[in-house]
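Here is an idea for our session: we take a single protein and study its fold together. Once you have written the record down, we can walk along the chain together.
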Amino acid sequence: RMPRWMSVGLWVQAELMAMATDIAEFLGAAVGLNLLFGVPLLTAGLITGVIAFAILELQVRGYRRFELAIAGLLGLVLAGFLYDTLRVGPSVHQSLGGLVPGLSGTSSLYLAVGIVGATVMPHAIYLHSALTNGRMPVRNDSERGKVLRFARVDVIVALGLAGLINLAMLAVAAKLLHTPGLSDTSSLEAAHHQFGALVGGGAALAFAVALLASGLSSSSVGTYAGQVVMAGFIKVRIPLLVRRAVTMVPALVVLAIGVSPTSALVLSQVVLSFGIPFALVPLVTLTSRRDVMGVHVNRRLTSAAAFGVAGAITLMNVFLIYQQIL
């Protein structure tokens, strides 16, 4: 539907987004292993790669096993942060107040952009479409509409759970960081230590397990998403295990040279925010065309809202670049 040069350009940026995701989640899983078992970070990274290979092997045996494995890992993440939320006990009133968007000065924009990138990972747009497309063959618009309705429920439930996990993480972090004497807690390792010191070993264990499960699930998803964008944009497929081996390299380099995993993780999420408009604008452009979508074409309000979101994120990204240059 688009010129070749545009498709190749979109593929390159989609690959970069998948790599940024892989770096973040790979580092998160490695830190989780380090916190749980004291494994050196580089060794923990190699172990993470082996586990990710095993999870990807499930996909070869069918979508259902792969999805169940990811769902199980996400269940661990939700349970871990739910436990920590109940133990730490952040204020419900203040947590709800935090849902109102706002910036405490321009310096907070960097973290705000990172939160947007971490919550709306652009590669997931491609992956979810690919998983939905191959699950159930359709013969007409009526059957296609039924599948779309199920997909809508699927997305709402998935994003709802993801939203709860993110709210729990932010509320717990805010409670810990506003405890007197803990304002300098600026790394995952320090946060884990403070969990143990203030709340107890169970909370610290839940934090580390959730970090490990999150990293393993997302790194596997990121690798598979990279396969999807390569096949979709340039019609090339490579074995998933080869792709996993290649995408491990940047994260292992970060661990080997001693860069702070926490700083690298936050930076990678900021990079993800820059990829959202490149995924969203072509998607909404195509789904707004009746010659492409037929009876399932977007409503005008849907397209306007989506373009508005993409525009707002783009403005945040541009302002962040301007701020960093100055």
